[in-house]
Specification:
It is a single chain. By secondary structure, the protein is of the alpha+beta class. The protein has 5 helices and 6 strands. A hairpin with a 6-residue loop joins strand 2 and strand 3. Helix 3 crosses helix 4.
């Protein structure tokens, strides 16, 4: 029996045991774990058809759940988690769904490890992300305020003129200069 309290601090551990308990061994283990997770994510990315079907269902559920009460982000997050596990039965007012399809466009963008769904409309022409698909699950990030259901004149009141599209600074009119973003 070898005593370790007499200045002999050698251990009789294997080389593999020493490697896994070193910093380099832990980094190699972490890299291997992340690599396995990425391979699983790449194999289970939802395809465009699945993403479109699930996001259409999630949007229908969001339209059904809207009850004219302004919600905060917690309510939206709880509703979106519920949308993952439920399906919309029907929309009582088909006019709302027709208007949604008329003024909004849902586009699916596949990536290597995940897919995203963007909603484009006149209010947000660059698009807003309304869903992410990863590990075979479509996770909605839908908010009712992102939808556009009608298009009307842009003015503040009933008898007011439309908003001016030119800028006048110091007597100079810049007009519709594309460099200014107008």
């Amino acid at each position: 029996m070898q005593q370790t309290d007499r200045g002999n601090y050698r251990t009789h551990e294997s080389l593999m045991h020493e490697f896994w308990h070193s910093c380099l061994g832990k980094l190699v283990f972490l890299a291997a774990f992340i690599g396995v997770i990425l391979i699983i994510a790449a194999m289970t990315v939802p395809d465009e058809q699945t993403m479109e079907e699930e996001m259409t269902d999630n949007i229908r559920q969001c339209i059904e759940a809207n009850d004219s009460i302004k919600t905060d982000w917690i309510d939206d997050a709880v509703n979106n988690v519920g949308y993952i596990f439920t399906h919309a039965d029907s929309i009582p007012n088909q006019e709302i769904l027709r208007n949604f399809n008329k003024y909004n466009k849902l586009e699916i963008y596949p990536h290597t490890f995940y897919s995203t769904a963007l909603l484009h409309n006149n209010f947000r022409p660059e698009g807003i992300r309304v869903g992410v698909g990863i590990f075979g699950i479509v996770i909605p990030t839908v908010n009712f305020n992102d939808f556009l259901f009608r298009i009307g004149p842009m003015h503040k009141g009933y008898d007011q003129k439309p908003i001016r599209s030119t800028i006048i600074v110091g007597g100079q009119s810049f007009g519709n200069d594309p460099e200014l973003g107008l």
